[in-house]
Amino acid sequence: MQVFGVKLPAMSSLVLWGLLWEVVGQMGLTFFLPPLSQVIVTLFEIIGTPPFLKALWETGYAFFMGVFFAIVIGIPVGILMGKSRFLDELLLPWVNIFVSAPLTALVPVLMVLFGFGLTSIIITTALFAIWIIILNARAGVRQINRSLVEMARSFGASPLDAFAKIYFWAALPEILGGVRIGVIRAVKGVIIGQLLISIVGFGALFELYASNFLMGHFWAVLIILFALAFSISEFLGYLERKVAYYAAKR
Fold this sequence. Notes:
Blueprint: E1 2-3, E2 6-7, H1 12-27, H2 36-46, H3 50-83, H4 85-100, H5 107-114, H6 118-142, H7 146-154, H8 159-170, H9 172-196, H10 201-211, H11 215-242, H12 245-249
Antiparallel strand pairs: 1-2
Helix pairs in contact: 2-11, 3-4, 3-6, 3-9, 3-10, 4-6, 5-6, 6-9, 7-8, 9-10, 9-11, 10-11
C-alpha cells in the first residue's frame, strides 16, 4: 500500500481503517458504530465467558463438520468430473447453478427435510463450500499433463492408484485454492444457518446483542469471527503457496 508515494506495510491499511473507525465512533454519529477502543475492551470482557465459549464450540463444530463433508465429497467429485467427460457433462450444469445461486433460499427446504437442529446447519455450511471445491478440483485435473496419466497406465496403475498418486497430487494447488475459498464461504453458511435454522452459537449472540442494542458486544463477536476466518484462510493460502511447485512439475 502507498500513501503520498510512501510504501507502507501490508497491515497498514487495517490500521488506517481502525483509526477511521475510532474517529467516527468518538464523534457519536450513530449508535450502530461505537468506538473501536470500546469494542476491543468489550471483546476481552466476553471472550472467556461461558456463553461465548459455548457459542464458539457450537459454531466451530458445525463449521468444521460442514467443511469436512464439503472436502471429502467435493474433491473426489471434482476429480471424477475432470477425468470423465460423461460425468462432467452430467454434473457441471448443476454445479454452476448452485455455485451462483442464492443458497440462502434453500434453507427453508433443508429445515423441512432435516429439521431445525444441528444437521441442517451442517448441511447448509457444506452447501456453501462444496461447489467451489468441486470446480477447482475439476480445473486442476483438466490441467494435468496427459503424459503423467499415460505413464501411470503403462506401469499398470489401478484407477485407485491413479486417483491417489497422480490426479490428487497433480491437482493439489487448485484443490487447496478451492478449499480456501470454500472455507470463506462456509463461514457465511454456518452463520446463516445459525440465524435462520436454529438460534445457537454465534448466531444466537448476534441475535441477542442486536435485539438489545449492545453494539459493542455485536462488533466484538463479529471481529472474532472475521479473525478466525482470516486466520484459517491465511493458513490454507500458506499451504497453497508451499505446494505451488507442483504446477511447474506438471
